[in-house]
Amino acid sequence: MASRPIRIAPSILSADFARLGEEVKAIADAGADYIHIDVMDGHFVPNISFGAPIMKAVRGVTDKVFDCHLMIAPADHYLADFAKAGADIITVHAEAGPHLHRSLQAIRALGKKAGVSINPATPVSVLEHVINDIDLLLIMSVNPGFGGQSFIPESLTKIRQAKALIGGRDIDLEVDGGVTADNAAEIARAGANVLVAGSAVYAGNDTSTYAGRIKAIRGAATSVVA
Ligand code: DX5
Ligand code: ZN
Questions:
Q1: Nearest ligand, CA of residue 202?
Q2: How far is CA 4 from CA 25, 107, 173, 205, in A?
Q3: Does the beta carbon of 10 sit less than 6 angstroms from any atom of ligand 1?
Q4: Residue 2 in domain
Q5: Predicted pLDDT of residue 226
């Protein structure tokens, strides 16, 4: 079976929020495949970012896939808001509530792609019984809450396990946290096809650098994928 295409998903968490619309348009024009939207509640993770109204405000600047990563608990009450605000993929954390299967069903019932994310300490095996209910599996390679952290090497083992669990299913395998052009090859080799990058794309917030940075990450990742 052919490999899934490599997709680069810059995280707007590292964008200049004072110019958020321009920053989203800039990464879209620079070749981003997905726009990764990190929603944090100061409860599930120790930081607050933004919610559905902010996402909605930038929805109009591009047609690219909005890849919405909810680091909130509970998540279920807010799924419809994010669907209405223009998310294409809605990812919840397996650790965020007791009824993951229900959350995933709710996302699909809203007509959106359903993703599930696991924190560094959570084993891939928690996903065994929902693997047929998801469109995206997100391995956190840092503890969620902040951009600019270092990639946790043990994540590579989990990416390989997740890839094996996915098998031939039509599921994106996404990795989030500490992704750079320097480690993109080993991340792709382990089986990931969607690479989130916040600081590696946005550092310095100079729009003229974004295309080159996205290209460098994509080049490194695609070099190892047949
Ligand atoms: C972390 C977020 C990530 C983060 C990635 O909680 O989910 O998406 O923005 O940032 P970098 O690429 O800087 O680690
Ligand atoms: Zn994220």
A1: 1
A2: 25, 23, 9, 30
A3: no
A4: no
A5: 63
pLDDT classification of 99: cutoffs 50, 70, 90: very high
Whether residue 147 lies inside any domain: the answer is: yes
Q: How many domains does the chain have?
A: 1
Q: DSSP of 204-218, one letter per residue?
A: T--GGGHHHHHHHHH
Look up 38 and say whether it is catalytic: yes
For residue range 121-180, what is the model confidence (pLDDT) as tens digits?
999 999 999 999 999 999 999 999 999 999 999 999 999 999 999 999 999 999 999 999
Domain that residue 128 falls in = 7-222
The answer to the question of residue 35 being in a domain is yes
Beta bridge partners of 138: 117, 174
Residue 52 belongs to what H/E stretch? helix 52-59
Per-residue pLDDT, 2 = 60
Residue 112 sits in a domain whose CATH number is 3.20.20.70
Look-up of token digits 């396990």? 161
Q: What is the pTM of this model?
A: 0.98
Residue 1 lies in a domain: no
